[in-house]
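JOB MANIFEST
job_type = single_chain_structure
chain_count = 1
residues = 377
[input]
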Amino acid sequence: MSLSLTEIPILSLPDFILESEHFKDWRAMCPNETMFAMQSDLVFDTLDINTNEDLYRIIECEAQFLFTKDVRIRILYKIDYYWENNPNASGLKLPKLEASYFGDQVNGLFERLDSFMSAMLCMKKNYLELFEYIFKRDGPNCFYSSHPFCVFPLLYYAVINGHKEILVRGIELGCPFKFDLLEPALAKGHTEIAKILVDEIKRRNIRVSTSTFLDIVSNGNRASLAFLLDTFIEDINEFCFVRCDGRLIKSAMKNFEMFQELIDRGVCRPDPKEFARELIDCFIEHNYCIEVLRMIETRFEFTLADYVKVKYLGKSKPYIPEQVIKNDNLEMYDHMRSAGYLTHEEFINIAKYNKCKKLSPGLLKKHILTVDVVFRI
């Protein structure tokens, strides 16, 4: 079906057309033209809405011309006012979803949501104009919710979805802001979002949140931890042992890359040997990967054998932890045996039950026989 076009003098075009992206692009290519061709059924002078057809025409025109942010906000206001006050709105049909960015925002306007949930939808979808309109209509109340399941601050939803524009606007309008917003930004790899947050944290002089570092160490990656340390931490030992009370380094032991990042930065207590003993205590208790143990031994020149001599001086030697057997971890098993740990006869049953292939019952029996006295647990 062919479209009917009408040529209109440029001087008579309404501002919402003159300011649109499509018209500006056309004007850049045709700087000397005095007439502008438009689809005949989209020629109108005002954004006033008195019938459903007015609304449909405005939405279609916007989809073709891409109006400015301010014009879109004005249209949202007019739609809301028309729907609430004009009986002609009966039978209103919403735009088809995903047909246009603004049409989707019009759909969002009619979602059956409270003020906060509407603002959350905007953060998730990057509905910048709808967010501006909700703020103009409801004020800062849209930033808060008493709903028990609304546990995250509003800006969180812009952060995790990587929506830079609405994040910046939310900050400007005074949305609740926390240091902890950095954690999801880094976890998602949103570097531009992280930079915006860092700038705002520094502008507000917000105190560093240790929980963010602990979350990154437990659930993030080494690059994210390095970013946080480079950005906010000047004295690594003061931060680890005073601010974090040793929790950060111990939590990092769960992940060798995280542990290496901290150790490479010189994390250490005043007595390196005592610090190594403390770390090995934690290592033995939780049975972390052997690379962590080897790093401790290398960096602090304090081996597992040294640890056994000091820890069990004048006492019977310790047994290898049962978890090593359950995990069929031959490498850890051999390393601990070489440091003086013993094999217990009960390990044979554990190996049988767990169908261990490396730490087979036969191998364990051989090692038990090399011990003069068998200590029972």
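[summary]
DSSP finds 23 helices and two strands in the chain.
The mean pLDDT is 94.
exit_status = 0
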